Amino acid sequence: MPEITVWTKQNAAVIDQLETAGRFIADERYIHMDLEDTADIMLFIYRWLSDHMPAVSVRPPDVLFPVWVSFNKEATMRPENGFAVLELRVREELVTPVNIEKWTRITNYSYIALDEEDAAEHNSLLRNMGINNAQAVMTDFYPEIKRKIIASWDRLFDDNVKAGNSNAYGLMWEVRREWVQNVTV
User: Fold this and answer.
1) Domain count, the chain
2) Is 126 exposed, middle or buried (0-12, 13-18, 19+ CB in 10 A)?
3) Model's pTM, two decimal places?
């Protein structure tokens, strides 16, 4: 099985967890620590992501959220006080690629269009309703549009739907101590 090298920036407390438990899994307390004021908003999206990842069938039973990784070191967030960058060597099939442009649309509660025509139709619908994507998703006033937007997020994992460039991050269900090649604090 081919192996790849990926990097992940995590709270420094993860190093202790790797030493004591032999693995790290993301949980809400780390999301709250890292995202602070936006954590509650992002948890809605992270829950969706966890339930819709193609690798959901191999998610360990104790895991709620995936761990983000970068495919190149330069794209990994720089280490800062209280954080560490872990260099990991893992089997390629353990990492699910995520197009950055599509993911950004999801974090903005936006629609992922099939193509330009679909985007134009969706934007016209929003204009006619006098709303934007975020208003439709974050309230209960537009349930059909909200369902349509959230259903479009499944296109995050569809390589036939293009958005922006092909730059990607990766997702893994866990980080195991034996995968760690290097730690930068």
Assistant:
1) 2
2) middle
3) 0.89
